[in-house]
Amino acid sequence: MNKKLVILILLLAASVLSVSAEPGGEKRLGFGFGVPNTVFIFQGGPYDLKIGYDFTEGDEYMFLGGSYMLINSRPMFENVTGTMAIGLFGRIAFGDNDDDFIGGMNIPLSAEIAFIDNFLEFFVTVAPGIELYPKPAFTKEAINAWAGFTIMID
């Protein structure tokens, strides 16, 4: 089996297990646009799962990240809250870069503004990280940023 596919399946399984491990709590679904990818978001309790895809022609890749929120929705201003998490991410390239895979750790930092009794939330996230695979390194590929919306599904 393709090594990248195995790594992607393991990352996805670990992320799904961590999200479902927390009983109860607020659950949110969302969508965001960012640098360098478009991302779908699921949050359950203190866990966060992001699945994204970069549509840049010739440089397409899939992104997967899971994180645990160390600080979850701490009030900063009147309607603005902040979140800090620690997580893992993986990126698998397709197209011209089909042998390219990176994986590592990141620290997502977010600011959120809630609307309509916390049903709708606008967020901005920056997630600096470090590559751990194929070799430990600080690179621009390990830095992600998104802005988008989530809705409560409880």
Question: Explain this structure to me?
Answer:
This protein is mainly beta. Helices cover 12% and strands 57% of the residues. The chain is globular and about 45 Å long.
Task: Give a short summary of the structure.
The chain is mainly beta. It has one helix at residues 3-20; strands at residues 27-35, 38-44, 47-54, 61-75, 80-93, 101-106, 109-115, 120-127, 129-133, 144-152.
Major beta-sheet overview: 8 strands, antiparallel, barrel
Number of distinct beta strands: 10
Counting helices, strands and paired strands, the structural category is mainly beta
Any low-confidence stretches, pLDDT <50, length ≥5? none
Radius of gyration: 15 Å
Mean pLDDT: 81
Major sheet: arrangement of strands = 1-2-3-4-5-7-8-10
State the distance separating the first and last CA atoms: 38 Å
Strand content: over 45%
The total count of helices amounts to 1
Task: Estimate the global geometry from the Cα principal axes.
Answer: globular
Q: Secondary-structure element sequence? A: HEEEEEEEEEE
Helix content range of the residues, please?
Answer: 10-25%
Give the SSE layout.
Blueprint: H1 3-20, E1 27-35, E2 38-44, E3 47-54, E4 61-75, E5 80-93, E6 101-106, E7 109-115, E8 120-127, E9 129-133, E10 144-152
Antiparallel strand pairs: 1-2, 1-10, 2-3, 3-4, 4-5, 5-6, 5-7, 6-9, 7-8, 8-10
